[in-house]
């Protein structure tokens, strides 16, 4: 019997996507020193577009070169980037693949090596071990908030002009929008803070600005945390409230994730028994959400088997399966699943065995990021590559980036 994974889906603007598999955003760090996409990025996206995924969401593209998340980000803040974006769109939309650009501002979650200073809704630094990687932020001014909103709209307009078929607003994982949503990180007393309505104003205004600067029928998605999993953080109830409002505003797809760098369940299997059985980390939440909204939903995090993905779709709590790490190792996984060549993949949590390093919680990002860069060079992935070697190489690489003054200072 044909798997539901390969059913097509028609969005409200009439655009049909060929299947229910979405490649979730993975930051590639493959921009050049002028923040433009490189040949490696084109090669990587062509590989994914040839691999059968219906929708490819790019790794986070920044809306302002003064606010990089990490060295080597692509930044869409000037029209000189258009020819590069056009090439990216051409490669990534081959085989009738949907290609959406994820847009992001890191706020205070920007590596020290990437920015001179960081802004946040309130001047509250990250706590714990992770804090050492990031600056102590200053409170963003009202005029700057308005400027950031305009920039999101402008970046989206460049994506549309270049041939991307949609954009995704990164509202999850502890970056600026997620900082605004969180009562822990947003303690403003003005109209941009306070209750959930005030804290979500920033996200809603960004959505509206993107609509204005693109068009009524351009596909706009939001990636949202089901919760931050932090004391006094953004909760499931608040996330459902925000989702309902976004549905009313007219968004085309909601992608559910969860956690931040401080808590990070977005990439860690939680130990709840129901999660182990159902693979996906946020299925319980998706079921609650599906009772509250009718907007198309993608759930991301933890899917590793054909059965797990099909059962999740059968539950009717979601319309799309989001995959990140599996597609970093097997870029043609959808084809392998469709042909029943691969029904399950095993991806252990990346650990060096050295507690001090493992506790930093960055290994999933550095290890998989390195696999992406192998694909970008036209090499095959190495699922058994030693985690410690990848960690050391990434340390050396980031050191080099600092020396090259990739830090945004203009
Ligand atoms: C190397 C790497 C980079 C990532 N970069 C991003 C990003 O730029 N934007 C984003 O929303 N999520 C990012 N994520 C999170 C993934 O989109 C996804 O939510 C998470 O990996 C859980 O899904 P999975 O279990 O299928 O990997 C990244 C994950 C990895 C491994």
The secondary-structure class comes to: alpha/beta
User: What is the rounded distance between the termini?
Assistant: 57 Å
CATH class: Alpha Beta
What is the total tally of β strands?
Answer: 13
What is the 3D form?
globular
CATH architecture: Alpha-Beta Barrel
Helicity level, as a percent range?
Answer: 25-40%
Q: How many H/I helical runs? A: 15
- Give the overall pLDDT as a whole number: 92
Folded structure, characterized:
This protein has 410 residues and is an alpha/beta fold. The chain has one domain: Alpha-Beta Barrel (TIM Barrel). 37% of the residues lie in helices and 12% in strands. The chain is built from 15 helices and 13 strands. It has an eight-stranded parallel β-barrel, surrounded by six helices. Strand 12 (297-300), helix 10 and strand 13 form a beta-alpha-beta unit. Helix 1 runs parallel beside helix 2 and helix 2 (82-92) packs across helix 3. The radius of gyration is 20 Å and the shape is globular. The structure holds flavin mononucleotide. Residues 24-27, 59-60, 102, 170, 172-173, 223, 257, 266-267, 300-303, 323-326, 364-365, 368-369 line the site of flavin mononucleotide (FMN). Residues 24-27, 59-60, 102, 170, 172-173, 223, 257, 266-267, 300-303, 323-326, 364-365, 368-369 line the site of flavin mononucleotide.
């Amino acid at each position: 019997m044909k798997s539901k994974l390969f059913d097509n889906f028609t969005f409200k603007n009439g655009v049909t996507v060929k299947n229910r598999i979405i490649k979730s955003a993975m930051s590639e760090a493959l921009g050049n020193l002028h923040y433009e996409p490189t040949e490696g990025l084109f090669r990587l996206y062509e590989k994914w577009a040839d691999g059968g995924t219906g929708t490819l969401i790019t790794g986070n593209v920044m809306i302002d070169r003064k606010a990089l998340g990490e060295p080597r980000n692509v930044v869409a803040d000037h029209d000189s980037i258009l020819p590069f974006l056009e090439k990216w769109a051409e490669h990534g939309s081959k085989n009738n693949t949907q290609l959406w650009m994820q847009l992001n501002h890191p706020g205070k979650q920007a590596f020290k090596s990437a920015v001179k200073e960081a802004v946040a809704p309130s001047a509250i630094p990250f706590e714990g071990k992770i804090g050492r990687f990031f600056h102590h932020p200053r409170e963003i001014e009202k005029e700057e908030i308005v400027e950031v909103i305009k920039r999101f709209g402008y970046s989206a307009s460049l994506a549309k002009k270049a041939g991307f078929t949609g954009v995704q607003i990164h509202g999850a994982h502890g970056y600026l929008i997620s900082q605004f949503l969180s009562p822990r990180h947003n303690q403003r007393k003005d109209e941009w803070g306070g209750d959930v309505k005030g804290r979500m104003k920033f996200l809603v205004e960004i959505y509206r600005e993107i609509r204005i600067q693109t068009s009524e029928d351009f596909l706009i998605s939001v990636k949202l945390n089901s919760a931050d999993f932090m004391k006094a953080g953004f909760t499931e109830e608040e996330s459902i409230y925000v989702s309902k409002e976004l549905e009313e505003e007219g968004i085309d797809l909601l992608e559910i994730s969860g956690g931040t760098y401080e808590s990070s369940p977005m990439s860690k299997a939680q130990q709840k028994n129901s999660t182990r059985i159902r693979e996906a980390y946020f299925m319980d939440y998706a079921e609650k959400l599906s009772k509250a909204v009718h907007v198309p939903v993608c759930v991301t995090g933890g899917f590793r088997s054909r059965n797990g993905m099909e059962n999740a779709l059968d539950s009717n709590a979601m319309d799309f399966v989001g995959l990140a790490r599996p597609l970093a190792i097997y870029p043609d996984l959808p084809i392998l699943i469709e042909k029943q060549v691969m029904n399950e993949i095993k991806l252990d949590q990346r650990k060096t065995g050295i507690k001090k390093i493992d506790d930093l919680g960055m290994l999933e990002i550095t290890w998989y990021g390195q696999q992406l860069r192998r694909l970008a060079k036209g090499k095959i992935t190495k699922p058994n590559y030693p985690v410690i070697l990848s960690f050391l190489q990434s340390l050396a690489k980031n050191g080099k980036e600092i020396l090259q003054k990739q830090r945004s200072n203009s």
